Amino acid sequence: MCGIAGLIHKGKSSSVGSEMTAMLQALKHRGPDSTGYAVYGTPTEGDYIMRLKVAEAEDMEKGRGIHQVIKDRIAEVEAILKEHGAKVKSKDAPREYSLRYVLNHKGDTGEMAEHIEETEGVEILSMGNGLELIKDLGDASVVSEAYGLNDFQGTHAIGHTRMATESDVDIKSAHPYWAFPYNDVSVVHNGQITNYWIMRREMERKGHRFMSNCDSELLAVYTAHNLANGVSLEDSLRQSIEEIDGVFTYLVATKDQLGMAKDTMAAKPLVLYESDDLIAMASEEVAIRAILPEEIDTYDPYDEEVRVWQA
Amino acid sequence: MAGVTDAELKEMTQEERVTALGMRTEALTGKSLYVEFDPDAEERFTYPWAPDVDFNKRTEMDCDGMTTTEVNSGIRDLMAQGYGTVVLKNPRGMHSLGVGILSKLNLIIEGSTGYFAVGLIDGPNVRINGRVGWSCGENMMSGTIMIEKNAGSTFGAAIRGGDLVCRGSVGSRTGIDQKGGTIIVGGDTGALSGFMMQRGRMVVCGNAGKNLGDSMYDGTIFVGGEIKSLGVDAVEAELTDLDKAWLTRKLTQYGLMPEKGVDHFTKIVAGKMLWNYDNLEPTEKKLIL
């Protein structure tokens, strides 16, 4: 019973970081295991923001050696960046195992990302011009505090609060997922995918990599695959209802779009609010009310419903 | 019947009757002796502790910053003080508001609620001037619920009595497992509405999603608009004059009468092809065989 939330401002920037925190905090009773954000700031052409983790939160308690291991992994990642000709413009470390780089890179970022992930224990959470993906264990207030999300300005965001049912409680199984290696695309999902292994093998045969055993990662890989083949976001969402089996409601964000899809059974909740300049959606109405306390009209999308909004 | 005449049975005490009817041969752990209520008792035999309220005694409660438990026990406290009209302000999507009210009460909610609003109620009249989330009015026994805007899925799940009315559209699986009462929807309803319905009536003025009335045992569904598809064993039946009269009365009562009247409604009932059950209780079987 995960909680998902998404919001998009049409044609203006807002403090989406704190708005999403308020929404996810209202949903935290749906799942206390981990919280994740995909927030979209102003895209800067040529510059990439890379968020990555070099260890799991639980590894930190595993002994003194871990600090050295983390240092070694970071050194390795930076060597790879150099090898691919990426210039590090700035570097932050909100947590010891979690880093944020601003890079200037001209070559094939997908190839570079794959190379970086060959390093043991390293997973790129996101890489894109506008996208920043943050996920960690704990509730929304803990995560947003640690990663300074309350100051984040942007146009749209999706978020997730997780109750682990189909895979482990760790950062790599937490949502959102970056649609690797597709620039700026992220996915959050509530539900279970029953043809996960069939679809996963199909995707692996097509050359995609999976970092976790979480069924939701499939949706990110699936979307990335479709988008890379020139399918529009809306068509990809529609196609997924046919091809992916199970119960699901999921949200996809790209650098300037936000989309939703609901399965044929409509067994997972979503409440939608739509106005001229703001669209907000969440598993429960309390999350929408957390940012819009005044009286508003909302509705539940029906089965097989697909919507896409432009920032 | 087990060697006793009706006249003899009438003369017996309940204790003797039970033995005479052969119910002692089965280990029923005293079930047959259980007295549900005493007909000589006071009128409010179901919930003797339920407070007497005065509808003209009115008060307001601001839910802002309160927990669900505080609001719900607050309503009970007010009822104990005799307040018959309670207005809840600023519910802001709070879950489980007003559940388990087992007495007459005029409850007005000024705003929208989250999941499980006014479930398990027996008696109150509720008006919600906003929308409701999933499972509103779940297992209500009697009373009325009136919702001004849209409602979420599993609207009126397992409802057993009373009138549950939504002016807007509702989500999927409306009236799942309905066992009585009336559900009225002003707008559209989603997929699998009336799933496993057993009794009662559902009226949808707008369109219905796919698999309407899937695996319904009994009960009736009236749809004013289009039906995307019927579920397993749900069949169309003829709209009788009695149905029309009933629809007219109910829809007029709640101000939801469509401009076209009620003649265009489609009536859906169970095909009863899935009825493969041995529907006698063990004791009943003994009495007959």
Automatic annotation (TrEMBL), chain A:
Do the record's keywords include Nucleus?
no
Q: Which UniProt keywords apply?
A: Glutamine amidotransferase, Transferase
Q: Where is the signal peptide?
A: none
Q: Which domain of life is it from?
A: Bacteria
Tell whether Transferase is among the UniProt keywords. yes
Q: Which Pfam families match?
A: GATase_6
Instruction: Check the record and name the PROSITE patterns matching this protein.
Output: GATASE_TYPE_2
Q: Which residues form the Glutamine amidotransferase type-2 domain?
A: 2-311
Q: Return the PANTHER family for the record.
A: AMIDOPHOSPHORIBOSYLTRANSFERASE
Q: What is this protein called?
A: Glutamine amidotransferase
From which organism does this entry originate?
A: Roseovarius phycicola
From TrEMBL, chain B:
State the InterPro entries in the record.
Glu_synth_asu_C, Glu_synth_asu_C_sf
Biological source species: Roseovarius phycicola
Q: What is this protein called?
A: GXGXG motif-containing protein
Give the matching Gene3D superfamilies: Glutamate synthase, alpha subunit, C-terminal domain
What is the phylogenetic placement of the source species in the record? Bacteria, Pseudomonadati, Pseudomonadota, Alphaproteobacteria, Rhodobacterales
Residue ranges annotated for the Glutamate synthase alpha subunit C-terminal domain, each copy included: 104-229
